[in-house]
Amino acid sequence: MARDPETIEREIEQARNALVATLDQLGTKANPAKLVDSAKSGLRAKLDEPKVKYPLIGGAVLIGLLLIRKLLK
User: Which GO BP terms, alphabetically (predicted)?
Assistant: First the structure.
């Protein structure tokens, strides 16, 4: 059974619109600036946790003291 050209054109236009919407969503999700901002905020949130923050500070102080000790010898 043959379909009329107007129906085929409407279906093509609907498929094209759906494809454009999908590509726009992918472009928004894959935006490099947005990905970097998301990674930064996630890292900052992780580093603000006391379980992570204080051991890092302690390690940095220890490394600093060892460097100072080595320089003064």
Answer: cell division
- Helix, strand, coil shares, percent, the chain, to 5: 90, 0, 10
Check pLDDT > 70 for residue 67.
yes
Instruction: Encode 8-36: b = buried (16+ Cβ within 10 Å), e = exposed.
Output: eeeeeeeeeeeeeeeeeeeeeeeeeeeee
Predicted TM-score (pTM) of the model is 0.50
Q: State both tokens at 46.
A: 């992780």
Q: Which amino acid is at 35?
A: L
Tokens in use for 40? 């930064």
